Amino acid sequence: MKEKLHQLKLKYQGKKMAPAFNALHTFLYTPNETTHSGGHVRAVDDLKRTMNTVILALVPCLLFGMFNAGYQHYSAINGFPAEFSLFEHFITWDNFWLGAITILPLVVVSYGVGLLIEFIFAVIKGHEVEEGYLVTGMLVPLIIPVDTPLWMLAVAVAFGVVIGKEVFGGTGMNILNPALTIRAFLFFAYPTWMSGDKVWVHDAVNLAGTPDAISGETILGYLAAGNTSEFSYSISDMFFGFIPGSVGETSTFLILLGGLFLIFSKIASWRIMLSAVIGSLVMGLVFNGAVAWEWIPEYSKFYGLMSFDFWKHLIVGGLAFGIVYMATDPVTGSQTNKGKWIYGFLIGFISVMIRVFNPGYPEGVFLAILLMNVFAPTIDHYVVQGNVKKRLKRLKNATILPKPSDGKAEELKVETV
Amino acid sequence: MALLSKKDANLILDPLADNNPITIQVLGICSALAITAELKASIVMAISVIFVLGVGNVVISLMRNIIPSKIRIIVQLIVVATLVIIVDQVLKAFAYELSKTLSVFVGLIITNCIIMGRFEAFALGNGPWKSFLDGIGNALGYGVILIIVGFFRELFGTGTLLGYPVFGDPIAKTGLYATGYENNGFMIIPPAALIVVGIIIWVQRSRNKALIEEA
Questions:
Q1: What is the percentage of chain A residues whose pLDDT exceeds 90?
Q2: Contact assessment for residue A138 and residue A242, using Cβ atoms and an 8 Å cutoff
Q3: What is the mean pLDDT of residues B93-112?
Q4: What are the pLDDT digits (tens) for A360-390?
Q5: What is the pTM assigned to this prediction?
Q6: Do residues A119 and A129 lie in contact, with contact meaning Cβ atoms separated by under 8 Å?
Q7: Any CB–CB contact under 8 A between B129 and chain A?
Q8: How far apart are CA B52 and CA B58, in angstroms?
Q9: Which residues between 188 and 207 in chain B have a beta carbon less than 8 angstroms from any beta carbon of chain A?
Q10: Which of A188, A205, A367 best tests the B interface by mutation, with the highest count of B CBs <10 A?
Q11: CA distance A194 to A197
Q12: Which superkingdom (chain B) (predicted)?
């Protein structure tokens, strides 16, 4: 099989569809080409392995999302179980089946449309198909509500891949994270499908207005609406993810595991993750402080979200998911170590700020990350410039040995010549 | 006999395509973003600019030998401002609703770089007839892009063209809306115009490789 494919590849070399064929080929097998000249540092983790590692880290979130879609749907119809038991109420075939038939089409459309566009562009440009979409295609279904219509997703994916990535030159050249570009497009183009209390639970849109109407608000939506009373979700619900929200973002626990996996496989930057967590905590503390010192009256529409305990911001909504899988994108994030601290910190900081102050939609992670994506090169520039300055200063103050006066410099010069 | 000599015809045709003020010179972007959410507004804006630039170019060209070069910018501004006020008053008198949609952007024609650019670059150095053609040509080039952008933004943003529903009724769910189609809210906000203009530039440059600058 492998040999035959190699022969086919040689046969079609230089033809128009060659890039498309090669893409499939290298997806299945290691290419048989080797470089013949010079010494090359080789590592086993090429771009494809990197991408696969991230996808591996996302699979638990996807599976959890499927169970949760079913759980939220049936609970909204039949009422939440009084005594929650993981295997009796959550990991059931009913839940999984419902999740699978609602979420797998999203995954299929996301990959189908995205890869089709990548293939078309590869054929037009005559270069190899890039692997960049493999992760994006998996991220997209995880950051949208379960009931997003498939055609909207297809339009958004086409937009995100073409405008977010291909116009800049493809994988590795993009300024904005493509998955978040797709999310942002959906949010601005079809806001009724992306926010409110009807989109987070399967079928809630169809049942709206009927006697069986169900709803499921996200915790942030509930707080932003000005409700300050206790909600029915416990802290462990929030942490393990038994709450309404986008498909894959709810379970902070699994995201944490995925994040640790990415850190230990050295795919994602721990600096960005840690500083983003710190940033969000700081902003949350500032708001909590404002409430504690009674700067904010209780009738203020920001009161609900401002009084929300600062650390809980991390376990509701998409903050954790964004920090672990989106902010750490090596292409669009900062490259320098110091830059990563600044970049991550500002993502966390701005996310929580937008959450509290955005009147229309109490979630700001995707906007914060997109904003910082734009600023990442600027941050890097100043970090590098700072470093250059520091070294120049060190050079100026350094005592250079040997001193020109003691004659050794001449000696050395002779030696080097 | 042709109506215009080849050179004169180029004055009108060049700005329509290979020397377009918006897509090649990237001037007048501000108003192109602001008022293209509706096709009707785009068309009216295009006509207004055609009038202002055509007449203005002729006026400046006629005065070109008597304007002291030190104060030429002020003279140019006065000419544009006069013409823009005429347009504004006409709109307010005959199309009040539309003038409210266009709001401040009619007044801002004064600051449209294309107009000052043509005054400076062409009308100050050429005769009235040539200047007139140049003004009409550049304003048409501007208007064409405005109308293309307005067409796509209104069609996908609100599902209408010139206010006439094309896809059916979004509230009663008739026509295309019955199949689950929805208007794209993104097209209504100004950033969408920037992206549509970008796509036009992209298409234009991939058709005519000579326009691509050296990297």
A1: 16
A2: no
A3: 82
A4: 677 788 889 999 999 999 999 999 999 999 9
A5: 0.82
A6: yes
A7: no
A8: 10
A9: 189, 195, 198, 202
A10: A188
A11: 10
A12: Bacteria
Chain B residues with CB inside 8 Å of A149's CB?
Answer: 180
User: Which ipTM did the prediction report?
Assistant: 0.81
Size of chain B in residues: 215
Say how far apart CA B10 and CA B44 lie, in whole Å.
Answer: 25
Distance between CA atoms of residues A233 and A71, nearest Å: 14
Q: What is the pLDDT of residues A5-53, one digit of tens each?
A: 667 767 766 666 666 666 666 666 665 555 566 566 656 566 777 788 8
- pLDDT digits 0-9 by tens, A151-184: 889 999 999 999 888 888 877 788 888 999 999 8
Q: What is the DSSP string of A187-199?
A: HHH-HHHHSSSSS
Instruction: Answer whether B125 touches A (CB < 8 Å).
Output: no
Nearest CB partner across the interface for A188, out of B180, B182, B189: B189
Which of A190, A195, A367, A371 is the best substitution to test chain B (most B C-beta atoms within 10 A)? Answer: A190
The label of the residue with tokens 């293939």 reads: A119
- Cβ atoms within 10 Å, residue A210: 8
Q: Which of A155, A167, A189 sits opposite B185 (nearest CB)?
A: A189
Give the span between the Cα atoms of A262 and A258, in whole angstroms: 6
CA-based nearest residue to A138, from A333, A373, A326: A326
Instruction: Tell me which residue has tokens 């973003």.
Output: B33
* Contact predicate A347/A153, CB 8 Å: no
The token pair that represents A398 in the structure block: 């350094």
How many angstroms separate the CA atoms of A406 and A411, rounded? 10
Chain A interface test: which of B171, B181, B182 (most A C-beta within 10 Å): B182
